[in-house]
Amino acid sequence: MMDQSLENAIRFISDALCENPKADKVKLIEAASERFDLTPMQEEHLYEFYIYNPAPQCSDPGGKTGD
Question: Which residues, 6 or more positions from 42, have their beta carbon under 8 angstroms from its beta carbon?
Answer without folding.
Answer: 3, 5, 6, 9, 33
